[in-house]
Amino acid sequence: MPFWKSLLNDIDFYLVTDSGLSRKGTLSDIKCAVAAGCKIVQYREKDKTTKEMIEEAILIRKICGDNAIFLVNDRIDVALAAGADGVHIGQDDMPIDAARKILGENKIIGLTVHDTDEAIEAERKGADYVGFSPIFDTTTKKDAGMGVGPERVQAVKTIIDIPIVAIGGINKDNCVSVVENGADSLVAISAIVCSDDVRRETEHFIEIIRKIKQNPSNRVNVK
Fold first, then answer.
1. d(Cα 143, Cα 51) in Å, to the nearest integer?
2. Backbone angles phi, psi at 138, to 5 degrees
């Protein structure tokens, strides 16, 4: 059984890289986040060649090892070439059933969803988790749309059984409400990669998320 099968159910903070925003570089960000205890990393790169991406992804694979799940955004070819644990794709990317045929059953496929209908369809088609987006307004992804609010996480949580990763405009000031409403994990790109101390910031997010998860009375009763 792939190591990620159990790890996926224990994720808290989810790192998504952004070389355009990063102060210290993608590899540095990942090293610091994994050292802080981050269990899942998504390599998102839009400005490099395929060759450059594969070379960097191979290094990321080594950094993550068996301590963190390593996913590649969109690029199934890069994921396969680097030996990644899987991919994260969007609604306009390769259909999930086609991606599964290429990747096989032992790789993770995460899918971005924007509402309950897409979440149900994602689980039905075999997604291992969903990225629910956008929770709040965000400038990191220009086509993300308007934030739907953390309460919508609760609506998705009641209808699917796979993990929910909350994405979009999340920071330490608003992340508590996101987890309280049922998110299993969350992404905060700017709050991490724009920081002078990625490890410290990652540790803070993990501490906040785990504290809420460990005290069920803090969470909205969604199931």
1. 27
2. -140, 150
Q: Which residues, 6 or more positions from 81, have their beta carbon under 8 angstroms from its beta carbon?
A: 54, 57, 58
What is the DSSP annotation of 89-103? E-TTSS-HHHHHHHH
Q: Which helix (H) or strand (E) holds 76?
A: helix 76-82
Give the dihedral sign, CA 72/188/168/178.
Answer: positive
Q: How far apart are CA 92 and CA 112, in angstroms?
A: 10
Residues 6 or more apart whose CB falls under 8 angstroms from that of 142 comprise none
| Per-residue pLDDT tens digits for 63-79 | 999 999 999 999 999 99
**Angle between helix 26-36 and 198-214 (nearest 10):** 40
**Is 90 in contact with 102 (CB distance < 8 Å)?**
no
Q: Residue range 42-55: average pLDDT? A: 97
Nearest Cα to Cα of residue 42 among 165, 197, 212, 177:
165
pTM tops 0.85: yes
